[in-house]
Inverse folding.
């Protein structure tokens, strides 16, 4: 099959990030030659710790999915992650080589840096151990057994070298770590006293040329001051062990995953592959005569290298050696022979004996492909492991400059460079003698492969980072391909891969930005192609069969027997033989077709089994229902092609609608019953584990190491443990493997909890299960919640909902960086993986910190963290982390409501004079927005904290300044010459303090009078005034005495008086407390007797006093108070400030409504007259009664003649109507009084609409709905019912052409319509706390329409 062409996705031109970091550091490239540096890229898994469950914190910063880079120049190393510097290292001498290595039982990878005189070893936390080298070292190589150190041939050194831990020259700081108990107990002397094994030059003979560093340092208690002796390194040749002395082989490659080493012998012109093995023996110590130096009882460990392959015929060493995987899932070692322009691959044979893997290479087990460059990549099977190693493909560059992708020796596709790069970025022009030649760009090399990314070197000298498409965007396609890779026979899967990659219709392989739907369609197309091929072969076989009666007779046994006994005269018996011979060729062809048919049938059966396992796994995830519906159609097509009636019937029972496409299954006896997880789970719950059939579990779920159906495997393992399955090592008797966290257990439920912790199965995962499946697991959690064992990990307690026990879990010894994270973060890092998502909720930085430089750090001025006092910092604590986790809405609310930082103003980099005026205008608009933020913050932080009575309350700043990001965040303030800034900030500061006081919880006990006085400033200010109002709203001002109240009043500070009056009224709400009432009436001139001296009280204080009276007398329907407040609504103007006069009337209306709150129908007898007077204030017709007169004039009307605003004798409804409407709404709230509704009507005619102000119509709509409280319904129809027909008819006809007069009428109708709809929406606010989503979805289109 011809290979398909795929377009290579170029990420961009590649440049080592270390060069960029050096440029930011100010390092001049002229000081160091450009070629005097080296680098290598590596996968994050290289530096990841082995035990992620116990070391989540330490590895979180180094495993974010980006490629890592080690950049080496001179004596410096820069470790970067993506486009961010992670760590820097400096050394006293030049760095010769650096590599990653894992040693012994250490869980973390070690960075080994070779210098001229020393070897420095770092762990991922930055701790260092420096080992001095007594002689010259050529290179170091990582192995699973330790670090292989290659000695210089001429290196001589002394016999005894002391290496002891207390030596100051050994290390700058000992590495403290937890070790496994085996091999390090005082009773077991199975390890040497130091990890460095040396062989020394004695008796004038050459020592070992290779050393093994098995551990950087021993435990502090194990590091005794002992003279270390040599531990020889051996090679095994022809069955005999020999010490490596003059090792002619040049080491060119080692593996840090498997104990393999490759070398090249220049004299013999051959490559060799060696396997490292451990030999435990004291024989060589005795033979070397050094037994007097070795402590008694110490069992030495030697390393032996055994040659398992050698290949001759190469003039030079291989330029590249790496591990890959053959097409039949066998590991191979690849040698790139540049001179021969080929990639030689040697198949590696491995056998597991006694829990140890023995490696070997069988003869004639090698093959080669043409290549001048090659790199290992992970493309076709991104999540499949073959033993300890991943499945690795090969990207090869041929001498014809073609990029080919291989899966083993099977070529899958050809990659081409994008055409637009060739036209713009990958071409150059050479001009000579007025002629220009455009050279075609070709790939000339491959380097730095990591996962599915590789560097492509082109003939222009540039390097481009490219990515090979490996993982589909569709999770369903990804699951299916992974399942097939894990379940299918290698030959079957290779056939599928060839078809998948060679088919040009596979859109998700050909295009990087392909859609999810196209990926699934392409996958289905490939699978159905296999199905059609199987059908074609079957059709071919059926067509080759005999169709005529004569051919049937000739092929029958009767004809053969008859021909033997009755030969016809003249026709020799040979004729029949010739006839049979002609038939034999046809039978041979039929056997070939039969083999091809069986191949495709077996392939489709395995595909059906693997995809059915995915289907069963997806059914256990409620968020994958759409994927299940897509997958079942493909499964039905496959089952129909294979004539699997049992599978078709099974799928149609899950999706009955499929019967329309595939028909009903008629056969009563199904040839095979498909596995069913739900059937297995039901059997376990009903009859126990022993009654459940293993055949109900898909084979892929029972296969160890699978990732495609790991979700279902976890559920099966939980149910198996819950129903009493037997534990067999790492597996269960049900055939599935499982992982259990450390901790004791006495019941099956406790074992299930530990298994859920070990499998990283938390509450979020539990919510993804169907309700019936999750219920037994939730029941197991509930049974363990009351008294769980005390030795469980914190994650188990979090899973049970026992965060109190999780906090008390002992913290394991941590490194300094981990301790810092633990103290700053909290339990979130201790209870991985279930609290791994519960990071501290803070505002994320809006300035991208791409490079972390020590002397050049960017300050994120647009972020909000714990150090900024914005009045909301107390919310973001551990409990908030538990409630919200990664939900960023809380962060966004805090970001929006923060008024303690300057606001960004977008301006040009070089502003002009007009731009400065624009800045001031924009800053004025933003300042008005900032002044409104305390209202939202007060609601956001309401009753969220408790204060200490020994601490003063901190009020966040209200910053009205702005900053200019385009001008290095320069601060700009409001111009005081344009506007009075202090007047602007007065009441906003008051509300800011109210918001700060509202965050105090009202249930923390009785507030101390001393604390309130303690917070009282020496000079009255608006901040303390707002705090008084907040304390009053919480009911804390009852602790103040009359003397305290008088002292506040005597300060004659307007804001303080307003805050105190409203706060006292809120604290004494509905009590009619006489002393407080008297103090309030002093501020209402209507209550002053005629002989009382006239006080010049600001209208603001009078308005606050009126509202306070309403709160004090709330619900009392006190007649005299109602009479006073009614008179204040219609009071004549006492000044020339019309706005204050309207506010005064509204305050009186609110107060009157509060006094008679909901008592309009059961109040005293004068209520009818009071209502008539209120309707007169609204503008309705007068209905005078015999009691009307005493309500028409205020008691102090003779004093209201000095105002400059002339009211006349009629009522000014523009002033009185709002207060009167509010009073009626509160008096008759929830009464559904038809009389009041009929009089408080919405205008129904053109004249009424012209007579009533539009904003008054909105107030009437709100008032009517407050009266009809129970009839408010959140629906669009209800909102439309509030609009009169005359208004709706006019709105519907707005599209018609109208003259100027009609335009004026239309404007009135539009304003009326808008105010009516707004009033209806405000009325719906009473339901928003019950059905907020429905309320939001209802109002959103209304707001968009308006």
């Amino acid at each position: 099959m011809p290979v398909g062409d795929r377009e290579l996705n170029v990420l961009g031109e590649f440049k080592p990030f270390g060069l960029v970091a050096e440029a930011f550091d100010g390092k001049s490239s002229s000081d160091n030659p450009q070629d005097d540096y080296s680098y290598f890229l590596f996968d994050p898994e290289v530096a990841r710790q082995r035990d992620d469950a116990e070391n989540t914190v330490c590895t979180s910063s180094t495993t974010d999915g980006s490629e890592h880079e080690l950049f080496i120049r001179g004596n410096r190393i820069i470790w970067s992650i993506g486009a961010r510097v992670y760590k820097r290292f400096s050394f006293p001498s030049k760095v010769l080589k650096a590599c990653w290595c894992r040693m012994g039982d250490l869980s973390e990878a070690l960075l080994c840096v070779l210098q001229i005189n020393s070897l420095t070893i770092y762990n991922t936390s930055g701790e260092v151990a420096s080992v001095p080298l007594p002689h010259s070292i050529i290179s170091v190589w990582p192995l699973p057994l330790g670090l292989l150190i290659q000695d210089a041939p001429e290196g001589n050194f002394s016999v005894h070298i002391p290496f002891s831990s207390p030596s100051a020259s050994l290390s700058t700081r000992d590495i403290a770590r937890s070790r496994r108990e085996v091999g390090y107990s005082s009773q077991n002397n199975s390890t040497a006293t130091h990890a460095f094994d040396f062989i020394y030059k004695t008796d004038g003979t050459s020592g070992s040329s290779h050393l093994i560093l098995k551990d950087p340092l021993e435990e502090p208690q194990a590091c005794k001051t002992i003279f270390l002796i040599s531990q020889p390194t051996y090679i095994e040749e022809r069955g005999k062990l020999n010490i490596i002395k003059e090792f002619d082989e040049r080491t060119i490659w080692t593996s840090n995953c498997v104990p393999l080493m490759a070398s090249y012998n220049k004299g013999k012109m051959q490559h060799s592959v060696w396997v490292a093995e451990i030999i435990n023996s004291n024989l060589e110590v005795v033979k070397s005569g050094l037994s007097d130096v070795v402590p008694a009882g110490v069992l030495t460990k030697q390393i032996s290298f055994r040659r398992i392959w050698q290949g001759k015929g190469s003039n030079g060493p291989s330029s590249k050696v790496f591990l890959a995987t053959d097409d039949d899932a066998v590991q191979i070692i690849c040698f790139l022979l540049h001179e021969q322009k080929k990639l030689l691959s040697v198949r590696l044979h491995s056998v597991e004996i006694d829990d140890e893997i023995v490696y070997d290479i069988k003869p004639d087990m090698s093959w080669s492909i043409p290549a001048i460059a090659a790199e290992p990549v992970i493309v076709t099977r991104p999540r499949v492991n073959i033993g300890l190693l991943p499945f690795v493909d090969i990207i090869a560059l041929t001498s014809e400059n073609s990029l080919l992708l291989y899966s083993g020796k099977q070529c899958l596709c050809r990659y081409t460079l994008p055409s637009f790069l060739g036209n713009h970025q990958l071409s150059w022009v050479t001009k000579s003698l007025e002629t220009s030649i455009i050279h075609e760009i070709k790939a000339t090399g491959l380097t730095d492969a990591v996962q599915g990314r590789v560097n492509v070197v082109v003939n222009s000298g540039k390097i481009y980072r490219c990515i090979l498409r490996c993982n589909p965007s569709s999770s369903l396609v990804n699951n299916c391909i992974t399942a097939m890779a894990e379940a299918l026979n290698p030959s079957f899967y290779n056939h599928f891969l060839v078809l998948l990659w060679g088919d040009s219709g596979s859109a998700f392989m050909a295009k990087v930005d392909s859609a999810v739907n196209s990926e699934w369609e392409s996958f289905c197309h490939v699978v159905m192609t296999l199905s059609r091929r199987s059908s074609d072969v079957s059709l071919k076989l059926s067509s080759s069969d005999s169709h005529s009666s004569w051919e049937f007779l000739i092929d029958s046994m009767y004809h053969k027997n008859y021909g033997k006994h009755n030969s016809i005269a003249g026709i020799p018996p040979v004729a029949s033989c010739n006839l049979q011979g002609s038939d034999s060729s046809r039978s041979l062809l039929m056997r070939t077709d039969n083999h091809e048919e069986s191949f495709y049938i077996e392939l489709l059966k395995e595909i059906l089994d693997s995809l059915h396992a995915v289907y069963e796994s997806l059914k256990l995830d409620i968020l994958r229902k759409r994927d299940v519906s897509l997958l079942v159609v493909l499964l039905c097509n496959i089952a129909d092609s294979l004539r699997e009636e049992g599978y078709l019937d099974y799928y149609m029972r899950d999706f009955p609608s499929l019967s329309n496409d595939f028909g009903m299954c008629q056969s009563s006896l199904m040839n095979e019953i498909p596995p069913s997880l739900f059937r297995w789970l039901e059997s376990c719950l009903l009859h126990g584990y022993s009654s459940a059939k293993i055949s109900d579990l898909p084979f892929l779920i029972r296969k160890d190491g699978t990732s495609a159906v790991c979700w279902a495997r976890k559920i099966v393992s939980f149910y198996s443990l819950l129903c009493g399955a037997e534990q067999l090592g790492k597996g269960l008797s049900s055939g599935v493997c499982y992982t259990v966290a450390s901790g004791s257990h006495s019941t099956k439920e406790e074992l299930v909890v530990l298994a859920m912790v070990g499998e990283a199965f938390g509450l979020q995962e539990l919510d993804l299960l169907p309700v019936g499946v999750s219920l037994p697991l939730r029941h197991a959690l509930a049974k363990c919640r009351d008294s769980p064992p005390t030795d469980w990990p914190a994650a188990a307690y979090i899973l049970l909902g026992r965060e109190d026990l999780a906090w008390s879990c002992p913290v394991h010894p941590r490194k300094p960086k981990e301790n810092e994270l633990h103290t700053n973060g909290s339990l979130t890092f201790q209870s991985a993986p279930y609290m791994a998502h519960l990071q501290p909720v803070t505002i994320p930085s809006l300035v991208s910190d791409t490079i972390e430089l020590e002397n050049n750090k960017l300050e994120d001025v647009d972020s909000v963290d714990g150090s900024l006092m914005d009045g909301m910092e107390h919310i973001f604590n551990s409990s908030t982390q538990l409630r919200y986790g990664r939900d960023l809405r809380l962060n966004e609310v805090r970001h929006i409501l923060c008024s303690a930082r300057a606001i960004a103003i977008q301006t040009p980099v070089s502003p002009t004079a007009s731009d400065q005026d624009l800045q001031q205008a924009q800053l004025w608009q933003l300042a008005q927005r900032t002044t409104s933020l305390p209202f939202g913050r007060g609601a956001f932080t309401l009753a969220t904290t408790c204060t200490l009575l020994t601490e003063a309350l901190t009020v966040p700043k209200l910053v009205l300044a702005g900053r200019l990001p385009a001008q290095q965040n320069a601060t700009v303030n409001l111009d005081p010459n344009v506007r009075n800034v202090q007047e602007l900030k007065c009441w906003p500061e008051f509300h800011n303090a109210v918001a700060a006081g509202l965050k105090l919880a009202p249930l923390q006990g009785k507030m101390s009078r001393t604390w309130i006085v303690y917070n009282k400033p020496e000079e009255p200010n608006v901040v303390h005034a707002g705090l008084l109002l907040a304390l009053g709203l919480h009911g804390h001002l009852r602790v103040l005495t009359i003397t305290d109240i008088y002292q506040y009043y005597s300060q004659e500070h307007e804001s303080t008086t307003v805050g105190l009056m409203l706060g006292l009224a809120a604290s004494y709400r509905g009590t009619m407390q006489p002393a407080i009432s008297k103090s309030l009436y002093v501020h209402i001139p209507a209550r002053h007797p005629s002989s009382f001296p006239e006080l010049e009280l600001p209208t603001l204080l009078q308005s606050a006093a009126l509202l306070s009276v309403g709160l004090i007398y709330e619900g009392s329907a006190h007649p005299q108070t109602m009479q006073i407040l009614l008179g204040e609504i219609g009071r004549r103007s006492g000044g020339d400030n019309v706005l204050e006069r309207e506010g005064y009337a509204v305050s009186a209306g609110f107060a009157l409504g509060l006094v008679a709150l909901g008592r309009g129908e059961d109040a005293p007898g004068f209520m009818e007259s009071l209502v008539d007077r209120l309707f007169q204030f609204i503008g309705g017709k007068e209905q005078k009664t015999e009691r009307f007169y005493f309500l028409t004039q205020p008691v102090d009307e003779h004093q209201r003649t000095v105002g400059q605003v002339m009211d006349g004798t009629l009522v000014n409804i523009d002033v009185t109507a709002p207060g009167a409407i509010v009073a009626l709404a509160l008096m008759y709230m929830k009464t559904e009084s038809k009389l009041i509704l009929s009089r408080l009507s919405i205008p129904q005619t053109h004249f009424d609409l012209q007579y009533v102000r539009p904003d008054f119509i909105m107030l009437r709509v709100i008032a009517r709905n407050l009266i009809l409280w129970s009839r408010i319904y959140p629906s669009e129809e209800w909102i439309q019912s509030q609009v009169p027909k005359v208004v709706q008819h006019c709105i519907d006809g707005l599209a018609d052409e109208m003259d100027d007069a009609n335009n004026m009428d239309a404007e009135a109708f539009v304003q009326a319509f808008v105010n009516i709809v707004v009033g209806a929406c405000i009325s719906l606010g009473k339901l928003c706390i019950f059905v907020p989503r429905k309320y939001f979805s209802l109002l959103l289109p209304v707001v968009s329409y308006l």
Remarks:
- The first helix runs from residue 17 to 25.
- The chain has a mean pLDDT of 76.
- The radius of gyration is 43 Å.
- Residues 375 and 395 are 5 Å apart (CA to CA).
